[in-house]
Amino acid sequence: MCCWPQDRQAGDNNGNCNQRYDNRCKDKDPADNTDLCLVNMNRAPGSVPVGSDGIIVHENDDGDGEGAIHCHGFAWSNNGNHASNRYKANNLFYVSMYDHMTQRGYVRNIHGSPMCACLEQMPVVTRSDCTQIDVEETFEISVDTNGKASAKLTSNDIDFNACQGKNNNNNDLEAYVARLVDEGHITKKQQESLEGIIVGNDNCPRAQERYLAAAGIVRGISTDKYDIVYEFPEVMTDEFVHGLCVAGASQAAASSSYDELTYDAVSDFRAGVKAFGDRDYTYGGVLDTVCADGIFLKPSRHKEIDRFTSITIGANPSSGATVTVCAIVEGDGRGNNRRDGGWINELAEKYRFSVTSHDNSDSELRYKLSNKRGVAMALLCKELPEMPTVSPTPRPTGPPVTISGAPEVTFTFPATATKRFIHGISVQGASSVKASVVRKKKFPYYVMPFGTGPIRAWGNRNYNIEGQDTTPYTTGATYLKPHKHKKIDRGTVIEVVMEREGNGAMVLCAFVEPGSQNGNWPQSLAKLGWTDHGTSYDEFYWKEGHKKHPWHLLCMPM
Predict the structure, then answer these.
(1) According to a count of CB atoms within 10 Å of the terminal CB, is the N or C end of the chain lower?
(2) C-alpha closest to that of 129 among 175, 85, 83
């Protein structure tokens, strides 16, 4: 793919360079066909000054952002005999040197990236135009006196045309790649690698959040200020009507990945409180809910909230160690409302939130204008930090388990011994479990069922763990999710307190990133008698984009 920020050629009906070769034509704009999201300068070291790295984020678009950008690319079949593969160098020359530089005058690279390169070296954009090769070839076939046939190419006629993409979406690189997948020319995995570079219209904010998070820059609630931090699943509807409340808290706040969505904390939540920052609607029916007299976190927007927005809430308990966090979303509690963000199904089914729906009475929770009946809201609540009761799990098929008979077991892990530390912890066969940092800088652990599908690996990253049901030691277990991905101080000491489920087996497991970010746990835990399974369960991994990172698994019966 090639991307150009400048047009320097007049009179070609492309871009806005119209004055012939005077000073006003030095830095004119090409025809804008994409939105530039960001540049990862680590991808193409030769395109940046020596020592430069990091990420350049381009917020907004056009005149409010990076200005006009034009991107154009092509793709080819894995089959070496296919015309798109054999003539790919011709296509590269046509796209980069002839069609755009010679014919249109498009020049220069986007700072931090090449002008033209393979996709993995290019900036993250929303879309790209596309050229495909169409070839007519003439072959001469001859047979010698021994009956041996031979053929040679005698002529070819190459046409460079707009790509014919999937679903008649033409001149679009992403759609053309989808067509190549359907026709068996490239693999689904190759297509998935494209999705991190060409992210689709209106998806720049989400891509920017994801790349910044991978670099350790996270927007959200500070764990230094709040004892309890919880990140809700991404909003999955085009409109989202909601509010948040916290009961049992002395302080609470919320933040979002969408710049125009902020929250104001309102104490003593009750009927008559304004529901949204940009509307005059007020709440009714608060009295009979757990939110009554709690802290209401009022969103600045009523419904115009971007799909894929992530929302994080933080709270400090007023007494004791727990708070009740509630999401208030439009709907009847059955998950069939196009403005519930997908939260009713997601929070109830995956994250064990309790759902309170309306009963068509005048006392139900609603937002309304004046004396009108208003719109019913469903209430989804959960006590945090969670101390779940899990079903007894089968005895693992690994080493023998010795049951001590003690109802509560505490295990203190050895101090970490690496500069960075990537890990997770699970407990199988426990009725309750919690983890905490007892030495060095503290961060929370979130307790949740491990389940069978992809599960969020860390509180401050969007990476997932997969394959936890492929090992006998983590199947059906409870996951202790660390808030931090890897920035964990050397010398950190972590303690896990477990309560056994009846008289069954209880197994504590730790899984770490192999190599220099393993905290030295494989060595130190092995000395304590733990069983080191290494990376033998290759379907158990955490996933960064399309890259799979296998876990080094260590387990011990408790």
Answers:
(1) C
(2) 175
> CA-to-CA distance for 263 and 253, rounded, in angstroms?
7
User: Which has the closest alpha carbon to 473: 552, 395, 390?
Assistant: 395
Cα gap 88→185, rounded to integer Å? 14
Mean pLDDT by 10 residues, the chain (558 residues): 88 67 67 92 74 79 79 96 94 95 90 91 95 94 92 92 94 96 92 87 83 70 85 88 94 90 94 93 86 93 89 87 90 75 85 68 68 82 68 36 55 91 93 87 82 83 88 91 87 91 88 93 92 92 90 93
Q: Cβ(314)–Cβ(228) under 8 Å?
A: yes
pLDDT at residue number 388: 43
CA distance 493 to 473: 23
Question: Between the CA of residue 226 and those of 221, 257, 311, 317, 350, what are the distances in Å?
Answer: 8, 19, 15, 9, 24
Q: What angle do CA 469, 474, 477 make, to 5 degrees?
A: 105
Distance CA 510, CA 520 (A): 12
The set of residues, in sequence order, having a beta carbon less than 8 Å from that of 282 and lying 6+ positions away, is 271, 272, 273, 274, 275, 367, 368, 369
Asked if 59 and 124 count as a contact pair (C-beta separation under 8 A), the reply is no
User: Which uninterrupted H or E stretch holds 83?
Assistant: helix 83-86
The residues with which 247 forms a beta bridge, in sequence order, are 324
Taking CA 406 as the corner, what is the angle to CA 402 and CA 412, rounded to the nearest 5 degrees?
80
Q: How do strand 129-143 and strand 70-73 relate by DSSP bridges?
A: parallel
**Residue 318 tokens, joined:** 């007023």
Question: What is the greatest pairwise CA distance in the chain?
Answer: 100
Please check whether residue 261 is in contact with residue 219, taking contact to mean a CB–CB distance below 8 angstroms.
no
Give the burial string for 355-382 (b: 16+ CB within 10 Å, else e): bbbbeeeeebbbbbeeeeebbbbbbbbb
For tokens 């409340």, the residue is: 245
Q: What does the alpha-carbon distance between residue 481 and residue 401 come to, in Å, rounded to a whole number? A: 25
SS3 460: coil
Q: State residue 167 phi and psi, 5-degree precision.
A: 60, 35
CA dihedral 206, 212, 214, 220 (to 10 degrees): -80
The predicted structure's pLDDT at residue 502: 80
Kindly state the DSSP code that residue 109 receives in the 8-state scheme.
P
CA distance 305 to 202: 12
Exposure letters 55-74 (e unless 16+ CB within 10 A, then b):
bbbbeebeeeebbbbbbbbb
